Amino acid sequence: MGVYQMIFPVYALLVSVVSSGIPVLVSRNLNSITDEKLKKGFFTETLLHSVLTGAFFGVLLIVFARLLATLQGQLEVEYGYYIIAPAVFLVSVLAALRGWFNSKLNTLHTALTGVFEQLFKLSGILVCFLLKLNGIKAVYVALSGIVLSEFIATGYGFILFFIKGGRLERGIVKIPISTFLSASIPLTVGGLVFPLALFADSILVVRFLALSGMNEKAALTEYGIFSGAVGTLINAPQSLAISFAVTMIPVVARHKRERNIVGIKEGEMSALKAVLIIALPLAVTLFVVAKPIMGFLYPSFSVDERARAVFLLRLSVIQIPILSVLQLYGAYLQALDKGVISARNMLIAGVIKLALNFTAIKLGIIGIILANTVCYIVVAVLDIYYSFKLRGKNEFKGGSIIFVSSLVMGLVMALISKKISNNILSLSLSLLIGGLIYVIMIVLYQKIKNTNRDKRKNSEEL
Predict the structure, then answer these.
(1) Domains in the chain: how many in total?
(2) What is the pLDDT of residue 193?
(3) How far is CA 29 from its chain centroid?
(4) Which residue range is the domain that position 413 belongs to?
């Protein structure tokens, strides 16, 4: 697990370089073009540049694999970089396709590519479980699962692109690579701060833990549990939540061009509600079912390792809604052509995180989690503050029902987990019954709200 998490931050960094700015660039520009033929030409050129960019950084990872392994002090990771390099290329291509879906306001298809990514990433872990693999073989299989997930998500994206009428035509528009880079770099810079911080963690945290008195093997295991078992579960929900939210970008960008402040505010609140409807219940779910889910996903963990993973997961779940809101408002500022503000806020928080790491490491991995949480809160608060300055006061409605429904769902899940000791049965029933209760409460609230609104409208007409 520790070796896997030496590789993943480098992969995450390259993924941010090749993909973080592309969906915004594509969706925003496609929405500003009215001629359908020009749209096809622009997207074709953008897709071509995404292919070249992904291929370049994928090859770069292969070339520098040995040097990275040496810097991280774990020579086993070299072959892991070779395995995961194709995923960098695939992510770059998928980013352009997501931009196209976003421009068409195809929320579901953008989200489904994210769902496929997260689901099939677990395929490697499932294979390790079924074949009872461990050690470096398990790491290589898990990395192969990531490549498979990106291949399936990209394939699904291309199939839908053509089904939905998308076509590629070269020669209509010519975009020099320098123009493409100059447009995408400002959108990409902000997305690099956290991956860079995670890359620094992959080099420094294990060494810091070893310096604090922990032996190197134990430090590597502790870091692996934190960034692998826990980090994977924390990142998946917020990735799913933001897949729904990014469709806000072309909507807000269009309202900005039309100087429609009401439309901008409504787009923001709709996206915020979509994010919280997903992020809050998933955070509560992971807190409640932490024990059975760790037992199911990581049966090879010792009793102590599993208990540690459960504790660290419960400590980290607060990051899910914070990260989701943070990414939402980062995208919101980009839609308003204020991506520089979001990048600056992330840079400030990144510096704070690194400073806190040096002091909080005395608390071990717990200190790193606290430093990360503070970092995310700083970015979220700064982004929301600057959003308020740009568009004025905005009222968010519906937050209380999401919070209450999540708590009720969590209580039901806790009762089921307490009564049933079998991990698989407990997890299955908790997700099924708890999830059903949550959906029913949200739907009933919306129905009652709509009924009351219709009554008020009829009353006003009378």
Answers:
(1) 2
(2) 60
(3) 23
(4) 409-462
Contact 322, 373 (CB under 8 A): yes
Q: Quick one: 383 and 421 in the same domain?
A: no
DSSP readout, 104-152? TT-HHHHHHHHHHHHHHHHHHHHHHHHHT--HHHHHHHHHHHHHHHHHH
Q: What residues have CB less than 8 Å from 315, skipping those under 6 apart? A: 366, 369
Closest CA to 407 of 377, 441, 380, 373: 441
Q: Which two tokens stand for residue 39?
A: 């749209």
Check if the beta carbon of residue 264 is closer than 8 Å to that of residue 255: yes
Q: Residue 114: name the closest of 306, 244, 212 by CA.
A: 244
Q: Say which amino acid occupies 172.
A: I
Answer yes or no: is 404 within a domain: no
The letter for the amino acid at 120 is: F
Same domain, 67 and 199: yes
Is the CB of residue 219 less than 8 Å from the CB of residue 210?
yes
Cβ burial, residue 57 (10 Å; 0-12/13-18/19+) = buried
The per-residue pLDDT for 62 is 93
Query: Is 50 within the bounds of a domain?
Result: yes
Q: Which residues of 251-261 are buried (b: 16+ CB within 10 A; e: fewer)?
A: bbbbbbeeeee
Residue 122 within a domain: yes
**CA atoms in the 13 A half-sphere facing the CB of 23:** 29
Tell me if 349 sits within 8 A of 379, measured CB to CB: yes
pLDDT at site 304 = 85
Same-domain check for residues 350 and 461? no
Q: Which parts of the chain have pLDDT scores under 70?
A: 1-5, 24, 105-109, 111, 125, 129, 133-134, 171-199, 202-203, 210-213, 216, 238-250, 452-462
Instruction: Kindly state the tokens that stand for 106.
Output: 């195809």
CA atoms within 13 A on the CB side of 262: 0
pLDDT of residue 55: 92
180-189 per-residue burial string, b: 16 or more CB within 10 A, e: under 16? beeebeebbb
Q: Are 427 and 289 in contact (CB under 8 A)?
A: yes
pLDDT of residue 413: 92
Cα separation, 276 vs 324, whole angstroms: 8
CA 361/CA 371 separation, integer angstroms: 9
pLDDT of residue 30: 76
